[in-house]
Design goal:
The chain is built from 13 helices and 15 strands. With 422 residues, it is of the alpha+beta class. The strands form 3 sheets. Strands 10-9-11-13-14-8-15 form a 7-stranded mixed sheet. Strands 5-6-7-2-12 form a 5-stranded mixed sheet, covered by helices on one side. Strands 1-4-3 form a 3-stranded antiparallel sheet, with no helix packed on it. The protein starts with a strand and ends in a 12-residue tail after the last strand. The relative contact order is 0.19.
């Protein structure tokens, strides 16, 4: 089936060799990876997701995904393989493994964290069943033989009509950590991975009228405020929002991510943490109402239509670059939380779970994963300095939250070969 890119257009034009617009999920299993079991699991899994087995082509001025019957590549490497290239069989998705790690790399314009979790859920079911010779329960897992509804295929934003008109607003520039900390020369993209007990963090969040996402955004805001108490620009954290529920398309595989702007206002700084959390929760509630989310989807639709109205890649790249710079300027950092992973019985075989994104922009991003009884917070930074992480960890300490700084890594995400550079 041929699929013309719609929501995938902006991620395509905002990708680059320096910032590949890609999701990388790294899973450390209990035992060494069995290559033959992984090969069988990947082949079976991809039969369930034919809309991910595609090749990017240009047709009549439009980019389209066409069926790609070549095998999805599995490389024996932590680095992985370049997407949309000969070494990945021209797929926009690939797997890798080494020792006891399994890695999924996928183009962010093909799907988002919610869609990637579905693939991982299916993969782990098949891999663990084969690797350990067990029969896992399959309730809530997408499996080969399922009827694949058209809802999984169709882009809900492209087909949506009568969307609310987004309110026009000119947000002032947000506080830039790079500028305020003079980190312009520190360009080593780095990931700090922090683990916290799921039950303890959930209890703390509920006791303070928050959720894991809002409390993480609040701790981040408080940390930034203490680092730069005299900064004039506002601290603004964007909390990622899944648009599927508002669109009425829970099974859609596309990249359907909006954002709620959480501004740490000056008057909030003297409040108790629980009152601050209530304020953030109110901001999230207001911005995740159906009408607000659909207005955000309409804004994305408008940007996509504008890009598609241009005749050349050069024009589209120029517009996308301008939008990217403007977007960078209005946020201090982002926080993304897909929700509890719920990988079912396969979680007993998982030891670590990491979520990385290649397109870091000029601001930090915290990716939150909840797997096998603990939260992992991956601080993805366009710099190596531990300044922000240390300030965030101090917030955890001050609030009695025990954490484990698991490791520090240079961000390593393979490239996506872009059609205009081939």
């Amino acid at each position: 089936m041929e699929q013309a890119l719609f929501t995938g257009i902006r991620p395509l034009y905002s990708s680059s060799r320096e910032n590949p617009n890609e999701i990388r999920i790294r899973i450390r299993m209990r035992d060494l990876i069995e290559p033959s079991a992984l090969r069988k699991a990947v082949d079976t899994t991809m039969k369930r997701y034919p809309y991910f087995c595609v090749e990017l082509r240009k047709k009549d001025g439009r980019y389209v995904f066409i069926d790609n019957e070549r095998p999805v590549v599995i490389s024996n490497s932590l680095h992985g393989t370049e997407l949309n290239a000969e070494e990945s069989n021209y797929h926009m998705i690939a797997f890798a493994y080494q020792d006891n790690w399994i890695i999924l790399d996928v183009f962010h314009g093909l799907t988002d964290g919610t869609g990637a979790y579905e693939v991982i859920r299916t993969l782990l079911y098949y891999y663990c069943s084969e690797r350990y010779g067990v029969r896992l329960r399959d309730e809530g897992i997408r499996l080969v033989g399922d009827e694949i509804a058209m809802e999984e295929w169709e882009d809900p934003i492209e087909s949506a009509g009568d969307l609310p008109v987004p309110a026009r607003s000119e947000l002032p520039n947000a506080l830039s950590i790079i500028e305020n900390a003079n980190l312009q020369s520190d360009r080593i993209k780095t990931v700090y991975s922090v683990a916290i007990s799921e039950s303890e963090f959930m209890r703390f969040s509920m006791d303070n009228d928050g959720s894991p996402g809002t409390i993480t955004a609040l701790f981040l805001s408080r940390a930034v405020a203490k680092l730069f108490p005299n900064a004039a620009d506002p601290i603004r954290i964007v909390l990622c929002v899944n648009q599927r529920k508002a669109l009425g398309k829970p099974k859609a595989h596309h990249s359907l991510v909006g954002g709620a702007m959480l501004e740490y206002k000056d008057k909030m700084r003297e409040w108790r943490l629980d009152k601050q959390a209530t304020a953030y929760r109110g901001m999230v509630f207001a911005q995740t109402r159906e009408e607000a989310v659909l207005a955000g989807a309409n804004s994305l639709k408008g940007i996509t239509q504008m890009l598609l109205s241009k005749a050349t890649d050069e024009e589209r790249l120029g517009i996308s670059g301008f939008i990217g710079i403007s977007t960078d300027q209005i946020m201090t950092a982002t926080v993304s939380y897909v929700g509890k992973a719920n990988f079912k019985e396969a979680e007993q075989y998982i030891r670590d779970f990491r979520t990385w994104t290649g397109a870091t922009g000029n601001y930090p991003c915290i990716e939150i994963a909840a797997v096998n009884g603990r939260f992992t917070l991956d601080f993805i930074q366009p710099f190596s300095s531990p300044l922000l992480v240390n300030a965030f960890l101090k917030e955890l300490e001050d609030n009695g939250i025990i954490y484990d700084l698991q490791d520090v890594s240079v961000l390593d995400v393979p490239n996506i070969r872009l059609p205009w550079s081939m």
